Each structure stands twice: as structure tokens, then as C-alpha cells.
Amino acid sequence: MTDTPTQLFIGGAWVDAADGATMPVDDPATGEIIAHVADAGAKDAQRAEEAAVQAQEEWARTAPRVRSEILRRAYEIIVERTDELAHLMTAEMGKPLAEARGEVAYAAEFFRWFSEEAVRIEGGHGVLPDGRNRMLLSRRPVGPCLLITPWNFPLAMGTRKIGPAIAAGCTMILKPAPQTPLSSLALAAILKEAGLPDGVLNVVTTSRAGEVCEPLLRGGRIRKLSFTGSTNVGRLLLAQSAEAVVRTSMELGGNAPFVVFEDADLDKAVDGAMVAKMRNMGEACTAANRFFVHSSVAKEFGRRLAERMGALVVGPGTRDGVDVGPLIDRVGRAKVEELVADAVERGARVLVGGRTPEGPGCFYPPTVLTDVASDSRLMDTEIFGPVAAILTFDDEDEVIRRANDTPWGLVGYVFTEGLDRALRVSERLEVGMVGVNTGLVSNPAAPFGGVKQSGLGREGGRVGIDEFLEYQYLAVPVR
User: Per the UniProt record, which residue ranges are transmembrane (predicted)?
Assistant: First the structure.
């Protein structure tokens, strides 16, 4: 931990907060403070904004190949330092080291992907229908960006936003979640080492998000906001962005349905459930929340899932053999406790888990509930914990209606051996992504995002860079 930066990164330099404030970073497995980092205020946000604005014009003119090679070098450095970054992430966030290493690989891949997209930004040319003008289309960076990332995937959510911004020629201010600032600061150091010019990326760690972000969004010099986090915060940021008409992309909450039909391969379904539910201890917007299982296979599915969940080892992420680390903090754990208690009060049965262990840390056991009432609070709440709630159904139209009965629409999962049914149901689900006989949909090469109140725009894939580019149309008379 001693080599990890703890200051703000502004204009290519490591600096303290203007008022000297710092904030602690806790290990959720022990509750102990592992570091103190600079706690930025309004003056620091202004400094970061000035650095990003001043660097924008020159950075936009930088050759695409140069931007591409910086991203490629950063990708290689991240891969080389996998263990170091994984241990850092586990210390501040809690996930087991195996998962942390997986996130490092996932994060690095966004830089490799967008290093390849940087040199494929294309425009267009043609004669307009009336024959009087030629149309020249070019694409240019949208301008300085504010990137706000969550704590659950602290490295990957950074690279998923920074990668396309660099590729497009945008400068940035990154505000990571206060629970997990160290991964973002380490990433900034890697990009500086990889040759990113001063001012292109600025990192402001803060516990005073409103004081930092609102003036940036209302001021008119930040031209793009990319946010990953809760729907409630997303609504607030959209309102703040409206005054200066800031372009926005939002990756917000989810309430994923996991549908198991009577013809599903139950081995595949349980394997998929373990991934869709337990990735990152259930602290993922893609996590399966509502398990709709056909009544003819519900009992067997529940038995198998409870057996697998009960076999998982809970403990500090650095300990060998641990499968499930702590939740991010006591507030997050208390929410899970309350949701489970509410479901049980309404008639749910606990097949496994459901009791908070004694001792330090923010641990909660993998839990499977069955006979869950449809009016339970966890049916319309993003659980963000290791709790699988099983409901039964008998009819395809019925389960689609129930799956869509939510304001969110990020991802859904469908398990069936019938191709026609898989396609038919997937097309009727009101979500931006569907996993068919798989519990993992995230991939840097695929567009990530949702519909309804799960967000605006897409990250990753061929379209991920579009969020950071504008079109310019030139009309040139035909002579």
C-alpha cells in the first residue's frame, strides 16, 4: 500500500486538497483504516476543470495512433501488475483475490479494445440528393468530460470510461467512489507512466461529491458526463446537467429477472445462477435479483442452488479458499438484512443462510429464499448482496409480464433448451441485455447498458466510443 498514490492527480501532478482535507479508506473485512487520501473540495474541482479545459485543444489534435499506443502501453502495464492491483482492490473493496484478478483482466481489456477503436474513427462523404452540395461528415471529441465511477468494480468502471474518452480525444476529470479511491489513483499513475499528457486525466477523490460535481456540471465547460451508480443519484445528476445541456450517459441500477423454464438444463441453470447472483458478492447492477422458476422444477432448482450457495466459504478476500468476501460497508449489509427480514415476515422460507455472522467486518452469508411473496421489498429493490429470491410461475406470458413489472431494465437471464422460446422471450423482455443459458453478459467487445430507468447510452463494444464523439457536417457546393 505504501507505493499507492494518495493525493489528487491534477494537471499531471500529485497534489494535496486545497484545504488539506483527507478521508479514510477502510478495509470492509476488518473495519480498519488502510489509508488516508486527499478529500477534494470546490477549489480542487476548479483546478481539475482548468487543467482539462486547457489540455483539450491540443489533445484533440493528437494523432489517433498516438492515443492508441498510450492505451496499449497502459493495457500492458496493468496486465504486468495484476497481483499488485488485485491486492489493492481486495484491500479497499473486499472481493476475493481470484475475483479481483479477474477484474484486473476485465479492466485491462477495455484499454486494449479502445486502443484498437481509436484508429477506426470514421466520417463520411457523399453528394446530397438535390445535387447542389457535397456532404462531408467528420467526427470530433465532445470535449472535457466528468466521469463518475462506483465502488463495486473500481478498476474496470474506470477503464470502461477512460478508454473511450482517450481514444476519442477527450480530456477528463475522474471522480471515483469515496469507498474505493485507491484503484483509481493507481490507474492514473499507470496512465502517466504510459505517456498520457498532463491534464488529459485528472482524478479528484472526495467525500464531498455535491460540492465537487454540481459546479462542474452547471458551469458550462464540462461537455460530457458519464456516470455509473444508482438511479436516484443518476436523476439528480441529469437535473444538474440540464442547465448547461451537458451530454450524458448513465449506467444505473438493475433488478434482473432470472427465468428458468421447465425444459431448462438445471445444471446449466444453477451454474448460471451462481455467476449471475454471486459475482462480486451480489454487489453488481447485473446481479440476478428475482428468480422466476417454473413450478415443475422449482423445488429441485432451489435444492441445488441452496447446496451450492451453502458450500461457499465466506471470509476475508486475501485468505486462501475464500469464495465470498465482505459487503462494502455496514450500511450495505444492513440493507440486505432488512430485505431478508421483510421477505421472511411475508412468508418466505430460508433454504440456506439468512443470518449475519458475529465478529468484525461486513460479512453476510450466501442466502437462498423460496416461497417469496411478490410484494416483498426485495422484489422492487436492487438487493446488492448475496441473496437469491425464488418465485414460481406456470405460464410464459405470465412470467414475461412479471419480469417486466419493474422500472428497471438493465439485464435479464433466460434458461431454456428451446431456441425459439429463448429468442421469443428475450425479444419480449424490456432489458438492454439478455444472457441466454449463461449468467455472464459483460464483455468489453459488447455494448453494455439498459432501458427504462436503468440508464442512457451504451459503454463498450463498437458503439462505446460514440458517446464521446460529435458529428460535424460540412456542406461544400458542387462546382
Answer: none
Neighbours of 17 (CB within 10 A): 21
Tens place of pLDDT per residue across the chain (479 aa): 458 999 999 999 999 999 999 999 999 999 999 999 999 999 999 999 999 999 999 999 999 999 999 999 999 999 999 999 999 999 999 999 999 999 999 999 999 999 999 999 999 999 999 999 999 999 999 999 999 999 999 999 999 999 999 999 999 999 999 999 999 999 999 999 999 999 999 999 999 999 999 999 999 999 999 999 999 999 999 999 999 999 999 999 999 999 999 999 999 999 999 999 999 999 999 999 999 999 999 999 999 999 999 999 999 999 999 999 999 999 999 999 999 999 999 999 999 999 999 999 999 999 999 999 999 999 999 999 999 999 999 999 999 999 999 999 999 999 999 999 999 999 999 999 999 999 999 999 999 999 999 999 999 999 999 999 999 999 999 98
Cell output for 284: 453488481
Query: What residue segments make up the domains of the chain, in order of their start?
Result: 8-252+454-475, 256-443
C-beta atoms surrounding 266 within 10 Å:
17
Determine how many CB atoms are found less than 10 A away from the CB of residue 401: 12
Instruction: Round to whole Å and give the CA distance between 206 and 91.
Output: 19
The domain defined by 256-443 carries CATH number 2.40.340.10: no
CA-based R_g, the chain, Å: 23
In whole angstroms, how far apart are CA 203 and each of 26, 90, 110, 477? 20, 21, 19, 46
Can you tell me the distance from the alpha carbon of 206 to that of 40, in angstroms, rounded to the nearest whole number?
Answer: 5
Neighbours of 215 (CB within 10 A): 15
CA distance readout (Å), 55 to 293, 327, 393:
54, 39, 57
User: Could you give the 3-state DSSP secondary structure of residue 270?
Assistant: helix
Residue type, 239: A
Cα 205 to Cα 4: distance, rounded to the nearest angstrom: 14
Task: Please say whether the beta carbons of 16 and 7 come within 8 A.
Answer: yes
Among candidate residues 337, 351, 339, the one with its CA nearest the CA of residue 309: 351
Residue 178: which of 248, 101, 92 has the closest Cα?
A: 92
Q: Just give the CATH number of 8-252+454-475.
A: 3.40.605.10
**Eight-class DSSP state of 168:** H
Which ranges in 368-418 belong to alpha helices (H)?
396-404
Grid cell in block for residue 291: 428468480
Residue type, 136: L
Task: Report the catalytic residues.
Answer: 251
Question: Which residues are 448's β-sheet partners?
Answer: 459
Q: Other C-beta atoms within 10 Å of 474: how many?
A: 12
Contact assessment for residue 394 and residue 294, using Cβ atoms and an 8 Å cutoff: yes
Contact 28, 326 (CB under 8 A): yes
